[in-house]
Amino acid sequence: MSSYQQDIEAISQLRKERDAWHAINPEYAARMKAQNRFKTGLDIARYTASIMRKDMAEYDANPAAYTQSLGCWHGFIGQQKMISIKKHFGNTNKRYLYLSGWMIAALRSEFGPLPDQSMHEKTAVPALIEELYTFLRQADAREMGGLFRELDAARAAGDTAKADEIQNKIDNFETHVVPIVADIDAGFGNEEATYLLAKKMIEAGACAIQIENQVSDEKQCGHQDGKVTVPHADFLAKINAVRYAFLELGVDEGVIVARTDSLGAGLTKQIAVTNEPGDLGDKYNSFLDGDYIESADDIANGDVVVKANGKLLRPKRLPSGLFQFKKGSGEDRVVLDCITSLQNGADLLWIETEKPHIGQIAAMVNRIREVVPNAKLVYNNSPSFNWTLNFRQQVFDAWQEAGKDVSAYDRAKLMSVDYDQTELAQEADNRIRSFQADAAREAGIFHHLITLPTYHTAALSTDNLSKGYFGAEGMLAYVQGVQRQEIRQGIACVKHQNMAGSDMGDDHKEYFSGDAALKASGKDNTMNQFG
């Protein structure tokens, strides 16, 4: 017996025991329960954490089983993404949502648009998680509501076979609720602040929290200059804080993604505490740029001196008070960061790079895997990269190294539309197309995401509509470019009243008021023009 039928029977029994409940229809109540599978954010976090753990194990067994997500800045965008995935692929397997701190800063702060520097309200992060899951749960209710109406119609027509077919869909319904990888930036303060925010994020439904090793009050976007990292001990304290938050709330399978910005970060705010040569603090300090000195006479007023490698090192200190790392030490620092994080509670890694280059990523991951064999990455397929130019230049360089004639191409101008139909451009596009599969196989990338794609799609589609609508095309710009495409591509939102919940509201009115219900979906509803 399906859970749907079990609920009908259980509610029927309750109604028998309570005379005043005679107006309650057990099947309607069971339907409402089925449409709201997840009662709390913690239910969602536990459910989605188990999905991620399963997916991680499947990736370890077969790198072709990588996962993907797109960043969404509003619940509606996340909802439409998952509706689209179910429509085109039949299921949501290995497809997640990403919650981008960049997009919260740019689009969801009460201060207005902000750069990605952790200046936005920290409460905006769990608020967006809750909003995303509210819209995904509504997508469940809307789709199931359609199935319930089809079931009633089949029953009314006496079509038992059709009714059984629809009932099977109801009994085996796949939710739109999927894991969210959620960005907590650098923790918005000290480890206690990190713990408190992590709790709110988990309570809202987050099963995976991504945290970075930048200084919280100096945080910069991963693709901007001026990034400042913290000693490992500080970062590990925040990893611990997130783990304690998961355990306190009973999300034992919660996932921590440890991000390192060391590849592009040339600065540190602190000299690490070290107790003996070769400990973690000593390793961190070994990357400091500076000069070895012989005596106190070499020390100027205000200089800082540390003992390193048995000698006195005077680190280079900037007017800001920050210390510099040695040039060219980024990859070594990344490898140490990643190994340290995995050995101290992190589950996945995030290496922020300056370009999408599989060889570069693989070189670091292979070094990490010498110590932690099952190390795997979440990777930012960033819109900050010029993908077209990067890959055309990679092909150019590979061809040149192989001795192929590249005299027809200007490497610095490969972005030009003049090259779009060339053999080089086609090869570059093929590499872009296979980048995720290739990087999953060769560079240990378990999860591929685009941080802020819907920021760009919203801008692009709005520009196209505005250009036509306020220009010579007028209303045709909307009809031809939007509505006609919605109808022909089967975009559910063409019935926007239905998407916003009008049919669900009508169902509930009928449940509550019976024949007296005033419903919105009658013959005069213009939504009927769309069939």
TrEMBL record:
GO terms for molecular function: isocitrate lyase activity. InterPro entries: ICL/PEPM, Isocitrate_lyase, Pyrv/PenolPyrv_kinase-like_dom, Pyrv_kinase-like_dom_sf. It holds the Pfam family ICL. Keywords: Lyase, Metal-binding. Transmembrane segments: none annotated. It catalyses: D-threo-isocitrate = glyoxylate + succinate. This is Isocitrate lyase. It comes from Pseudobowmanella zhangzhouensis.
